Amino acid sequence: MHGPDAIARLLRELAVAGAAALVVRGPVEDGAALDGVAAETGVALLSLTRGASWAQLAAMLRTLLSEGDVGESGRQTLGGVPSGDLFALANAIATLLDAPITIEDRRSRILAFSGRQDEADPVRVESILSRRVPERYLRLHEEHGVFEELYRSGKPVHIPPPTLDDEAALPRAAIAVRAGDEILGSVWAALRKPLTKEREEAFQEAAKLVALHMLRLRAGTDAENRLRADLVTTALEGGPGAVEALGRLGLADGPLLVMALGIEPAEDADHAQVTAERQRLAGALAVHLAAVQPRSAVALLGDVSYALFPVPQDTAAVRERAVQVASNFLERTGDQLGAVVGIGSVAGEAAALARSRANADRALRVLSGGRGPRRVAAIADVYVDALLLEIRDLAIANHDELSGPIARLAAYDTRHNAHLVETLRAWLDAFGDVVTASANVFVHPNTFRYRIRRVAEVGQIDLQDPAARFAAMLQLRLMGAYDDGGGGGGGKGKGPRPAAG
Fold it and tell me: Per-residue confidence of the chain (501 residues) as pLDDT tens digits?
């Protein structure tokens, strides 16, 4: 924390350097005395309000400073077209080329389109309605190397009418949209007559303008996403800035709960694809929750998307409603990468949001570690499983080894190739019902009775003692002997090890 003398000295140094302003973390001591120094030097002194982060300030300044860097002074335009208005730009290009236009991203999704699409063909109409090029045509373009040529060339690429069943289509001219070496997307024209040389040159120039607009859109979106992520992060921490952050998000006037959305990709999944999928799901979750509760806030933080979901009060019905909302979302988005949602406790005040997030993460971990069909759970529903995982973590951190009856049984099984641990597990699972337990391990009831007597003898355990049974069940769970997919076991060998001997 700099005092007023240090700030005054810095203002004078910045004046010599030609700086316009100095931003310091508020509150500023003796601000009235510094007013004179600021007036003398001509360097504005600004105070960063409590709860705001330096990252938010940097993002805001970056956005403000980029405005008007291209185009006419005083107007947010790029090449005479309103900045970021891809639809207006598509119409301008359509006029230049005398052909209906689409602007597409790298995944052939329609970002914008011009008028006069009725002059094109059914394929173009289908693309506009679904906001992406039909899959059958994408495969055809890939087979004929259209995209390879498009992304390699800096000039328009002419594509003859595709021959696919009896569908009639016009020829196309397309050009890649680049920002340096990065491909941002492409522009497509449906042609009823070939492009002249002048129109081809206009098409090339138009692609450069499209790149500027797409970059401006991306910069604005990135800045907005960063600001929102910073605010959501500040709120989730539950510290002094949480109230201010919630106020900026419009969420300061009622209880909230935290949802945590994660995915479980395969070990060989492409990292770029997984990252893109996380971003896609975060955006989809924001849209889904906005339809249910418009004041929701979603941000992707690391590998997890967190949602602040307003609720009227803390009741069982409210928590069930949150589970249903999350379940509906996963049903609509599919299960390509194993998405799961953990739901935390209800936070009645900003300080409780950190606990709600921790509980959402705990529920998410249980779901991620399990192999069952459940994809959504509130912490109240999986609390015991979460607690067992944390006990297992503690045992591993302490390098604990199993001892007592379970350790003796495990050691006996290793030496004699017996099945006493499996027998005890089956007996406990069946609540001591020998017929059911023996059927579950596919042995005769008399054989099972003999084995359970050996369990008591070798393990030196009184199976009539409830405390002894509970201790055995807990140790079996911690050593990963259970494989019920509930997240508490986690897999054989991952928990504490049996003691030697």
Answer: 467 888 888 888 888 888 888 888 777 777 677 888 888 888 888 877 665 556 556 655 654 554 434 334 444 554 455 555 788 888 889 999 999 999 998 888 888 898 888 888 888 888 888 788 888 888 888 888 999 999 888 899 999 887 767 777 889 999 999 887 788 899 999 998 999 999 999 999 899 888 888 887 776 666 676 788 888 989 998 878 899 899 988 898 889 999 999 987 777 777 777 887 888 888 888 888 888 888 899 988 888 999 999 999 888 899 999 999 999 998 887 665 689 999 999 999 999 999 999 999 999 999 986 556 789 999 999 998 899 888 888 888 888 777 788 888 988 988 998 899 999 999 998 998 999 999 998 999 999 999 999 999 988 999 898 998 888 888 888 766 344 433 333 333 344 444 433
**The model scores a pTM over 0.70:** no
What's the CA gap between 322 and 326, in Å, rounded? 6
Report how far residue 55's alpha carbon sits from residue 225's, in angstroms, rounded to the nearest whole number: 12
AA letter at 134? P
CB 59, CB 84: distance < 8 Å: no
CA 230 to chain centre: 15
Instruction: Give the C-alpha separation, 366 to 368, whole Å.
Output: 6
* 424 touches 455 (CB < 8 A): yes
Residues 6+ apart with CB under 8 A from 270: none
The single-letter code of the amino acid at 82 is P
Q: In sequence order, which residues have a C-beta less than 8 Å from that of residue 20 and are 6 or more positions away?
A: 43, 44
Report in angstroms the alpha-carbon separations of 292 from 148, 347, 404.
42, 19, 53
- Looking only at Cα atoms, what is the longest distance across the chain? 99
What are the C-alpha distances in Å from 251 to residues 246, 254, 300?
5, 7, 18
Q: Do residues 345 and 257 make contact, with C-beta atoms less than 8 angstroms apart?
A: yes
What are the C-alpha distances in Å from 204 to residues 149, 154, 155, 207?
A: 15, 8, 6, 5
SS (HEC) of 392-433: HHHHHHCCCEECCHHHHHHHHHHHHCCCHHHHHHHHHHCCCC
Structure token digits, residue 216: 């401006």
Q: Within 13 Å, how many C-alpha atoms sit on residue 368's CB side? A: 20
Buried b (16+ CB within 10 A) or exposed e, 323-344: bebbeebbeebeeebebbbbbb
The CA–CA distances, whole Å, from 420 to 193, 407, 457 equal: 82, 11, 11
